[in-house]
Amino acid sequence: MLDWIQHLMQSMGYIGIALLMCLENVFPPIPSELIMPLAGFTASRGDLTFVGVVIAGTVGSVLGALPLYYIGKVVGEERLVKWADKYGAWLTVSGDEIRKADDWFDRHGHKMVLFVRLVPGVRSLISIPAGISGMPLPKFLLYTSIGTALWSTLLASLGLLLGEHYERVEQYLGPATYLILGGLLLYIVVSVIRRRRRQK
């Protein structure tokens, strides 16, 4: 993986960074925690500029968020509600609950599009509920651009500071990703158990 990322970045420069960050949103096994620190390290050697690296990472990440946004938009609230009413009983999810969740996203979730971009492991997934809720595309692009610019700047800066040891960024953030995903999974399991107990 690392050799492929290095080769693509060396051969394609900024376009390679943008392409990698675009793919990272769609294929999570390609980690931004490795791409952007390597790009920052490359900038520290003078092969690329730091600003160019951040812009390329941001543009690629925003482009990669669009397919997930449109998947959510195609599915839409009504289709999801119908699916939940028909098949959601085993997950104890009803159409009414999906409507309530969607209403909450309409009121508060737009800010989450920005903040979740800074959370390893789930940062790309927020595009789906944004699409489902019908979040206006200009607002989605604005919040996504701000969040991904901050994330790209942070990771590239760490790569700049760590130099040849840029791989440590992924080593440190990797466990954090698993903790976050594990916490979300635990929350879902506990929520399902509680709901089933209330139903009984």
TrEMBL record:
Transmembrane segments: 12-30, 50-72, 140-163, 175-193
Domain (VTT) ranges: 30-159
InterPro entries hit by this protein: DedA_domain (IPR051311), VTT_dom (IPR032816)
Pfam families the record matches: VTT_dom
Signal peptide: none
Keyword Transit peptide: no
Keyword Disulfide bond: no
Membrane topology, record value: Multi-pass membrane protein
GO cellular component assignments: plasma membrane
Keywords (A to Z) from UniProt: Cell membrane, Membrane, Transmembrane, Transmembrane helix
Subcellular location: Cell membrane
Main location: membrane
Name of the featured protein: SNARE associated Golgi protein-like protein
Annotated source species: Deinococcus maricopensis (strain DSM 21211 / LMG 22137 / NRRL B-23946 / LB-34)
Lineage: Bacteria, Thermotogati, Deinococcota, Deinococci, Deinococcales
